Amino acid sequence: MFDIFLFIIFSGIVISLLGIGGALVDNQSAGERLLINLLFLFIGMVQISYYVWFLGVDNRFLLLHSTHLPFATAIGPLFYIFLQIILGTYKDIGWRYVLHFSPAILVTILIIPYILLPDSEKISIIEELNLGKTTKKYAIIIGHIRIFIFLQIFVYLFHFLYKTRALLNIKSFRRLEVTSFLFIIILCSMFILSFSICGMYFFEKGYYVFSHKTISISISFLVLSLYLITRKYPKTTMKVKREFDMVKYENSNLKNLNLDKIRTNLDILIEEKKIYKENELSMDKLSNLLGIGVHQLSQYLNEILKTKFYDFINHYRIIESEKLLINESNRTVLSIALEVGFNSESTFYSAFKKKWKMSPKVFRKKFRNK
């Protein structure tokens, strides 16, 4: 008998494989292609596990049962990165991203002992889970891991919507149709996830399997929709990023300012008046000298110059100190630090080592005789 659930889940498996192939020929960097491939691969693994479960033969493929959970735990952060790639706001993976995958490591540690259990014990746990019961230790662990995975995906989707809330307006949707598609897909998936998660807690136990089926369908829906968007709109990343930047600028405090004039005045203050040498220099004072507000100055530094106030000022202080360290070898490091605008020798050392990976004294010894 034809089962629409199984058909949709099987379609999700096929599309995951197509997504892997499509990502291989995309124009993203090697790192981005790897992350997208991992996302589609892990989703495919989860869908295969669900397909076997809903087909009723999971007790015949014991190796597949729950071994997908560590990979499923990585879907949330990978999906979040994928959405940022579409938006064009993704930066190379660093510690702030690596930490997001720590739950997957923890789940791996929890699942390994289950994998090593005898088949008879696994079958007993599987039968209990299929009935929506959680009395055995590993049935409780697996049940809660499943709930955590769904909540995690929901939270990442919500966080993405919050970060890109500037795009949630009619003007943006009219200018770029794909943005409305993207948000409708995410909102629908979040609704299905929240409804199914609530169902696991508040409805009768028979709803447990059905809720997993609806979640599996939502995953297939997400994969299918995003795959079609990225294939139909091959330049999605560029277009959506351009739209995001445009919306941010429309809502920006800089919209009515003469940015060229600000840049010219800032250059005069830095290059000619060397205002960075004032050790009491603050953002308030600099914004007053430029004739703009503090928030406008902060936004200008962050969005236009891609820096922060103290990083910007310290950059010029360090450049000035480099000349003095080499040309005035008889002067102490402290006197040079105070002259270029630092309040103490320790803050100078910290800023200097941030750029040169060495202390001012080592720098002076290394470059003085060259």
Can you walk through the features of this model?
By secondary structure, this protein is mainly alpha-helical. The mean pLDDT is 81. It has 19 helices and no strands. The termini are far apart. It has 3 domains: 246 residues, Rhopdopsin 7-helix transmembrane proteins (Up-down Bundle); 53 residues; 63 residues, Homeodomain-like (Arc Repressor Mutant, subunit A, Orthogonal Bundle), CATH 1.10.10.60.
CATH fold-type name of the largest domain? Rhopdopsin 7-helix transmembrane proteins
Count, helices: 19
Radius of gyration (Å): 28 Å
Number of strands: 0
Care to give the gist of this entry?
This protein has 370 residues and is an all-alpha fold. It has 19 helices and no strands. The mean pLDDT is 81.
Keywords for this entry:
370 residues, 0% strand, single chain, elongated, mainly alpha, Rhopdopsin 7-helix transmembrane proteins, Arc Repressor Mutant, subunit A
Secondary structure elements and pairings:
Blueprint: H1 4-24, H2 30-54, H3 69-73, H4 75-87, H5 95-98, H6 102-115, H7 119-130, H8 137-163, H9 170-175, H10 177-202, H11 207-232, H12 236-250, H13 259-272, H14 283-290, H15 294-304, H16 309-327, H17 333-339, H18 345-356, H19 360-367
